[in-house]
Amino acid sequence: MIVQRIRTTTAAALIAAGLGTAALTTGAGTAAAADVHSTPTGGVQVWLTHTETVAAAHSGLANYLQASGISNRVAVYLRNDSRYISTRHTIPGRPGLFVDTRYQQVVTETANHPDGRIGINITPARPNLPVVIAQYWR
């Protein structure tokens, strides 16, 4: 159990670091800095700036979240006006709602809004679903 939690925490941290690094190295520069906050549950919340979100969309890095063993540990929070919200559905025998989209599509849709930002919430206390990718725009 502890080994699994360490693996989950490490994977979640690497995902956030990878998205942030890709955003910075593909043109976001040092003037734009992600907002990083601790959460009450011992997790970390990282909000990319719009420039970093655009860079993350162009890098394609979110495609790696679809890999076997990772994708079932990542959730998405879609805005009500997201084009993918209408694909919500349930899967018999599995808790929660599911959407028919890839993580990269969520990042790209967000980047296409003038003030769109991606948030990455990492919660090691939830080892079955430690990473949530959230959309934000006005």
Report the sheet with the most strands, covering strand number, pairing sense and barrel closure.
5 strands, mixed
* Beta-strand percent range: 15-25%
According to DSSP, the number of beta strands is: 7
What is the radius of gyration computed over CA atoms, rounded to a whole number of angstroms? 15 Å
The total count of helices amounts to: 3
Give the quaternary arrangement of the chains: single chain
Morphology: globular
Describe what you observe in this structure.
Residues 1-10 and 22-30 have low confidence and may be disordered. Helix content is 33%, strand content 23%. The protein has one domain (2-136). The protein has 138 residues and is of the alpha+beta class. It contains three helices and seven strands. Helix 1 (2-28) crosses helix 2 and helix 2 (50-59) packs across helix 3 (103-111). The longest helix is centred in the N-terminal third of the chain and has 27 residues, at 2-28. Residues 1-33 form the signal peptide. Keywords: Signal.
List the keywords:
138 residues, alpha+beta, two-stranded antiparallel sheet, 33% helix, globular, disordered N terminus, signal
Short description:
The protein has 138 residues and is of the alpha+beta class.
Task: Show the helix and strand layout.
Elements: H1 2-28, E1 35-38, E2 44-47, H2 50-59, E3 74-77, E4 89-91, E5 94-98, H3 103-111, E6 117-122, E7 131-136
Helix pairs in contact: 1-2, 2-3
